[in-house]
Amino acid sequence: MANVQYYDVILKPVVTEKSMAAMEDKKYTFLVHPEANKTMIKEAVEKMFAGTKVAKVNTMNLEGKKRRRGMVVGKTAKSKKAIVQLTEDSADIEIFQGL
Questions:
Q1: All structural domains of the chain with their residue ranges
Q2: pLDDT in tens, 21-53
Q3: What is the fold, at CATH topology level, of the domain defined by 6-87?
Q4: pTM here?
């Protein structure tokens, strides 16, 4: 496994209607490094966002979609998505506040 530091684990937040609705239950969705596991994701969230405490992490591996350009068939890159559940006494994640 590659040497993945905590600041390399979280790539970007996922901003969709479903993920915005889940924020009311303190669930935040991120695209993460494909080789990151649940404990790495938990440590990265707690280190990057001050005052947060992670209750649990759910992960999903997303396969690449097939795409065509004329007769050439290819695939988009694989990705991994994580839904992070914070505890009740945890602070909210600030990057989602203005959305």
A1: 6-87
A2: 999 999 999 999 999 999 999 999 999 999 999
A3: Alpha-Beta Plaits (3.30.70)
A4: 0.86
